Amino acid sequence: MIEVKTFVSGSLKNNSYLVYDHNxxxxxxxxxxxxxxxxxxxxxxINGLLISDIxxxxxxxxxxxxxxxxxxxxxxxxxxxxxMPNITSYITKCFLKKRELSxxxxxxxxxxxxxxxxxxxxxIKVIHTPGHTAGSCSFIIDNxxxxxxxxxxxxxxxxxxxxxxxxxxxxxxxKLFLLSGDYIVFPGHYEKTSLxxxxxxxxxxxxL
Length: 208
Hints:
Layout: E1 2-9, E2 14-21, E3 28-31, H1 37-47, E4 51-55, H2 61-64, H3 67-71, E5 76-80, H4 84-87, H5 90-98, E6 108-110, E7 115-117, E8 123-128, E9 137-141, E10 144-148, E11 151-152, E12 155-156, H6 166-177, E13 184-187, E14 193-194, H7 195-201
Parallel strand pairs: 3-4, 4-5, 5-6, 10-13
Antiparallel strand pairs: 1-2, 2-3, 7-8, 8-9, 9-10, 11-12, 13-14
């Protein structure tokens, strides 16, 4: 059975997600490792888990700041290639330097409809959902969507960054809304929601 543990950290209340299965304890994944390294490390130690992969919804500093700490443990890091300008940006480098961390190294570039079989029960489908940033992606695992800063409860991501685009985020959220059935939505900030709820209540629906 797949389980999700949420870690909230920092002044921006970032969500980091640990996705794991007690039947395959050596194949857990971490989505958007924000400033929660100590909490995650303690949790996986207590529960006998190992992280094999990190998946990044996008490259803004508040979603990637712990990557160098996990990279020291040999964990593979996945992100869309269009996020490299954010990964290597001045602001990201400044936050890393402030914490005396090395630059972020990416192992694999993901793309729309990429599929990753992490373990017998954990399969990840990548959906490219640009708009908040050019390479923003959402991840489908079982009946869950990890939407990063694309889709929030009753809201959606900012598009006023250098690589943001309001028209693109409308298309991206519509792509999610057109998925069949319901999903639990785990966003990059704030509380979780459901796809059915957002189809009916998110203000972006007036733009579709």
